[in-house]
Amino acid sequence: MRRKQGPGYPSRFRYRTTGIDPCFGSGAVQVRRFFGIIEVMRDQIGGKPIRLCSCNKTIPINAAALGEALGAGGPLKVHDALCRRQAGAISDVLGEPDVVVACTQEARLFSEIAGEQDSAAGLHFVNVREAAGWSAEKDRVTPKIAALLCAASLPDPEPVASVDYESSGELLIIGPSAVALDWARRLSDGSVAQLDVSVLLTRREGGELPVDRNFPVWSGIPVRVSGFLGAFDVEWKQVNPIDLDICTRCNACINRCPESAIDFLYQIDTDRCNGHRQCLDACTHIGAIDFDYGERIRQEHFDLVLDLSVQPLLQLADLPQGYAAPGNDPLEQALAAARLSQLVGEFEKPRFTAYREKICAHGRAGRSGCNRCIDICSTGAITSINEHVSVNAHVCAGCGGCATVCPSGAMRFEYARMPDVGTRLKTILSTYQKAGGENGCLLFHDLEDGADLIASLGRHAVRGAKGLPSRTIPVGVFHVASIGIDTLLGAIAYGASQVLVLSGRCRSEAYQDAIESQMRVAQAILSGLGFGGEHFRLLRSDDAASLEHALWEIAPAMSVGEAASFNFSSEKRTTLDFAIDHLARLAPHSADELALPAGAPFGAVLVDRDKCTMCMACVGSCPAAALQDSPQLPQLRFIERNCIQCGLCANTCPEQAISLQPRLLLTAEAKAPAVLNEAEPFECVRCGNPFGSRRMVDNMLAKLGQHSMFSAKGALQRLQMCGECRVVDMVECTEELSIYEYANKKD
Q1: Do 391 and 382 contact (CB within 8 A), yes or no?
Q2: Torsion sign (Cα): 357, 358, 360, 366
């Protein structure tokens, strides 16, 4: 998220627009678009000038090999001190629209140089030092450096839509009396003038109300906190007889109370109060005390919430913008207060997801199907609305987990879009292979903790550690929960030996379980096709030493002999079809069918023909057009490649005749309609045209034969007619009363 006007990025959602490439920088800035043809000229990639630096000759840059790998027609120029005595080399290219700088450490310095010259050049920084050069395999890092440079030169992504926030600084502080009042005094003393402070006291834990009424104070038990920056709704129950909003703090009640049950918080200690009610007499003219108050619910609206409760009122893995819950640590409280004080004004952040309800498998006809996006959402941004879901874009944190687990592709992650991600991966892997690299391993990481951990690993390589293996290529993403089966299999199809995901700040068990579930399905497909080795792994390392051990311990897995040429599609199932078809074509082992673990988005629908009545309710419930009827015959048809295993058909079937079988069918039959059940057609007793199955009509007659609505002569026979004949018969029938005749007869 960024401020729409004015400097600074007040939130951890830093939607930045220029700067360090997120693939490789420790302070990554921009999700780039990776597509198009890369035209390489001398000291240029894709028409962008490039500045290489060996960092005082500590990075083994083979200029000749790099030039050959990038098709530059000669060695690339390598500087040794680009940030010091050779800084003029940056100034020389600031007249160009875009410049690639192979250094992230001095990004601020180079940006200042550009600013001093009023340059409009877009500086794109890429880390080749910690990510490649500082490694125990220094003599083998050229292919990786070439891949990093090539990816950094790709065009910028198309901008995504944004959502707006507006905050006027109305802050509610919730918590025990002493700490809540202390922070209220600090934040309302004029030093943070833009905040309009209110306080909700949840417990009596010392302190006194201030002499001056500089901010509203309430007391009670919070019932509900919901919303986001600029739009929080807070409800609480008043559980003390004294209403602080009415109380004048005149001390009359304190003077009259014989048990000293009222202190200078102007709240009654109900454990000490003996019910003399002298305080009530003292407050007669003000009316702030009411022992018959009940449990009154109050509600107010705020822009910001500082929750000082020991346990946050919002129990979410990712808290909404504008809500801070630092606990009882004074330092964390100070940091939270500082962050909230910056959230005054107008802000925007990307609209991270797009939703297409037409193919959503959440529900049909009142039956529940897939709830995966709701279950994984860490912010509560996704809720059920009848047969579909709703995404609150203001609450969404941009993890992309919903798109990862969505079997149909109804939920789509837009930051970055899959076609952009695909071209980025294709560029990295094709350049790496062209430069002579083998067994390329992609390491996906987030742009904060993960990037910092990788930078730390590379830095320690100069002190006896190993750094990153030369075959391990770091790829930065906004959130690793967005890495799904389409990305995993697509990367293998492009020639990767392995795909690793570094959990980083992705601490949510739901996210990690989802990533590993996607990996299990993808690995089952590759193993079934004969590709040996472990192709996927989630790394939970949280320090450089454990990450280094994990990266050097994993052995290369078998890769495809020929890299795929297809592009990632914005349609998830299309990308999967391309990847699976390519992998199956080059598979070491030929297979017609692969068993998959539960939860896989591929599989068969099994129909018990003895139970099925051919009612076709399953056809109407299928969101993926996997189940179909026949316009000519009473047949239930099934296209297996379309099936997403959502379970709606099984939940809808009135006869409980349907079950699911996760598997991957690789033959041509997977894309052709297969007949799951068929029945003898029933012919209309009037015109002779078939209109349903005999079993369905017989079953209907058996169930309705004794019903009073069908006791009239010819009523049951009408059920044996097609729709057109049924209407004609009703018009021609003279033995049944019409509604008008019934009304006259009644009169």
Answers
A1: yes
A2: positive
CA-CA distance, 164 to 609, in Å (whole number)?
Answer: 54
pLDDT in tens, 580-627: 999 999 999 999 999 999 999 999 999 999 999 888 999 999 999 999
User: What residues contact 264, with CB distance under 8 A and at least 6 apart?
Assistant: 208, 209, 254
Phi and psi for 201 in degrees, rounded to 5?
-85, 125
Nearest to 31 by CA among 399, 404, 416, 424: 416
The rounded distance, in Å, linking the Cα atoms of 260 and 703 is 76
Two tokens, residue 138? 């220094």
Instruction: Read off the pLDDT of residues 364-390 as tens digits, 9 standing for 90 and up.
Output: 988 999 999 999 999 999 999 989 999
pLDDT at 72: 76
CB 184 within 8 A of CB 174: no
What contacts 463, CB < 8 A, 6 or more positions away?
Answer: none
Q: Is the pTM of this model over 0.70?
A: yes
Alpha carbons 491 and 473: distance in angstroms, whole number: 12
From CA 64, how far away is CA 72, in angstroms rounded?
A: 9
Q: Which helix (H) or strand (E) holds 519?
A: helix 509-528
| Count of CB atoms situated within 10 Å of the CB of 443 | 22
Report residue 16's pLDDT band, with 50, 70 and 90 as the boundaries.
very low
Say if residues 125 and 107 touch (Cβ distance below 8 Å): yes
- 418 alpha carbon, distance to own chain's centre: 14
Token pair of 396 as six digits: 């969404």
If pLDDT is split at 50, 70 and 90, which confidence band does 736 have?
Answer: low
* Amino acid present at 747: D
- Answer yes or no: are the C-beta atoms of 12 and 347 closer than 8 Å: no
Q: Which residues contact 195 (CB under 8 A, 6 or more apart)?
A: 169, 171, 187, 188, 304, 340, 341, 344
Nearest to 51 by CA among 87, 16, 27: 87
Terminal CA-CA length for the chain = 72
- Return mean pLDDT, the chain: 88
Return d(Cα 59, Cα 74) in angstroms, integer. 20
Q: What residues are paired with 302 via a beta bridge?
A: 232
Q: How far is the C-alpha of 700 from the C-alpha of 665, rounded, in Å?
A: 36
* Residue 317 or 454, more confident: 454
Burial per residue of 610-647, b for 16 or more beta-carbon CB atoms within 10 angstroms, e otherwise: eebbbbbbbbebbbbebbbeeeeebbbbbbbbbbbbbb
The owner of tokens 């409760």 is: 309
Mean pLDDT, residues 27-36: 32
Q: Is the dihedral of CA 542, 543, 545, 548 positive or negative?
A: positive
Q: What is the pLDDT of residues 681-690, one digit of tens each?
A: 888 998 988 8
Only one residue has tokens 């952009």, namely: 420
Q: Where do the H-state alpha helices sit in 393-448? A: 401-405, 418-434
Q: For 457-477, what is the mean pLDDT?
A: 92
Distance CA 207, CA 266 (A): 11
The two beta strands, 472-477 and 441-446, are parallel
Q: How far apart are CA 302 and CA 171, in angstroms?
A: 6
DSSP string, 601-622: S-EEEEE-TTT-----HHHHH-
Alpha-carbon span 618 to 629, nearest angstrom: 10
What are 704's two structure tokens?
A: 């309705």
Q: 8-31: string of b/e by CB count within 10 Å (b at 16+)?
A: eebbebbbeeebbbbbbbbbbbbb
| Angle of CA points 313, 319, 322, to nearest 5° | 95
Pairing of strands 345-350, 162-167: antiparallel
- Alpha carbon distances (Å) from 67 to 39, 45, 96: 13, 10, 21
Q: Three-state DSSP class for 684?
A: coil
